[in-house]
Amino acid sequence: MNARKRVALAMTTAVTAAGLALGTPTAQADITPTSLPGAAVATPGHATPSQGTTHPNAAAAWKQLWGPTEITASYLNHHGKKWVSRSFDAHSTRVIGSFRCWNGGDHSKARLRIYNVETRKWIGDSGAQPCDWTYNYIQNVAGYKDGQPLRFVLTSVGKAHTTYVTAYRAG
Questions:
Q1: pLDDT band, very low/low/confident/very high, at 103 (cuts 50, 70, 90)
Q2: CA neighbours within 13 Å on the CB side: how many for 38?
Q3: Of 73, 96, 116, 125, which residue is 20 to 30 A from 141 by alpha carbon distance?
Q4: Within 13 Å of residue 92, how many CA atoms lie on the same side as its CB?
Q5: The whole model's pTM is what?
Q6: Domain map of the chain by residue range?
Q7: Residue 71: pLDDT over 80
Q8: CATH, domain 62-170, list 1.10.10.10, 2.60.120.380, 3.20.20.120, 3.30.1490.180
Q9: Contact 155/97 with Cβ under 8 angstroms?
Q10: How far apart are CA 169 and CA 50, in angstroms?
Q11: Per-residue pLDDT tens digits for 139-169
């Protein structure tokens, strides 16, 4: 089983467990493009696993910092196919970014990177991932200390499409 499938399986398991524990519906795992009302979407009990995590208890340790933030195709087209978040402090040494987009069959891709503002270094890179409405994850790999400001940088590869970005930290 590849890493992406393990992440999807762990996320589904964690969301289901969190939903049962909190008494909230677990339908949030099946969000469709038409059901997202925009940037104000909140998913109580939503936990995100780190890359390769398959144990639901490990996934439950992630806390949502902000998002999902909607970056429209129009915004991306008017800003060089690039979006940069405001600086934020994760209050943790581990941070994960997730993003998802859809392309209508034109094979577009998106890339999310994590930038350490203080050291001026890239500390995580998802690489160009297909816009196929699956969640893609990136976490800092090194070079980050709690308290340093971070930024997420989203880039469209090919035709720009509306993309949702969320930040998480280890809880």
A1: confident
A2: 1
A3: 73
A4: 16
A5: 0.66
A6: 62-170
A7: yes
A8: 2.60.120.380
A9: no
A10: 10
A11: 998 888 999 999 999 999 999 999 999 999 9
